[in-house]
Amino acid sequence: MSLTSLPLVEISGAPRERGRQYGEQARDRVHRALAYYAEAFAHSSGLSWEQVGARAARWVEPSKEFAPELVEEMEGIAEGAGVGFLDILALNARGEIIYDTTFGSMEPDGCTSFALMPEASGDGHVYAGQNWDWRDGVSDTVMVLRVVQPGRPTVIMHVEAGQVGRQGANSAGIALNANGLGGRFDDTVGVPQTLIRRKVLDSGNLNSALEALTKSRAHIASNALVTHRDGFAIDLETTPGAIGWMYPTDGLLVHGNHYQAFVPPQLAATYRPGSADSLFRVPRAEGGLRTVAAASGTDEARKRIRLAMSDHLGYPESLCTHPDETQPAVKRWATLLSSCVDLTTGDYLIAAGTPCDHEYERVPWNLYDGPHGEVTP
Length: 377
Description:
This protein is α+β, with helices and mostly antiparallel strands. The chain has eleven helices and 15 strands. The chain has a nine-stranded mixed beta sheet. A hairpin with a 4-residue loop joins strand 10 (232-238) and strand 11. The two termini are 33 Å apart. Residues 102-106 have low confidence and may be disordered.
């Protein structure tokens, strides 16, 4: 199955078996992801991919302690794709590697996330989504993954091939959208974000989802916008130390790549936003999404959301980001996709590229289909 240019991969069963299915179906994309990051890290740090993988081994034990089943899943992915386990771990810890001073430097993720409550959506639905901005060179590694797992909610995510978590929603009516945040805190080795985010999406209720964020010791700072189908959203700016949080205003919550709820004390004296464009992406998204409240129905609401997320102020480093042709190919940014999940109906919509020139398409799985997908009161 495919969604225009994005493959759709469905996996099920026990962790290692799920991983094997994943690796076998996404083998080509996993190999492309490894090739891209080998080039990117050589460009930024001068390290070979073998050296990156060897250093990534520092995340094995924290990952096993936090989510042993996801480590099994990663081992299965490696087997199915015919690559090493540390290769897959490095793909899952690429955000942590980027921030780690021993690896040189790459810019962190972009992204602009949103949640719309019934009072702000025009059609009375609950929406969650984002523009996912990252290196244009990984666009041919992006895929949509559906995970059917015994005893847990069914999860739909969009990820880079080889990753066990990133952004998505589940059959319990919980959506997670995430954004990179800047700042290095200390040398303690914490849990990679892909595992924390998957734990959120593996949660069957809101409290468990939030505990995955508030009780884990992340390696880096990251923003998490959690939305529930019952008309609730909260944004958590998680760090290896303190956590800040914020709620919707008049039914709308938007977050970019700078601290909006608080600035951690470890950074306060010298903090500067890592992504200057985040400072205008957020208010532009807020302004555009405010118009959704005037929509006369669901079709119009979704069109207004897409239009809001297609804003080009500051082009090419805009809310809808396009590659900057003046930059080396390995460093060019783009909106890899725009997502819009209707938590009321279970429709998972994706524009497979920049939303200004790609329509939202419905993924051929409803969130509430299949095992553990029953809508409960």
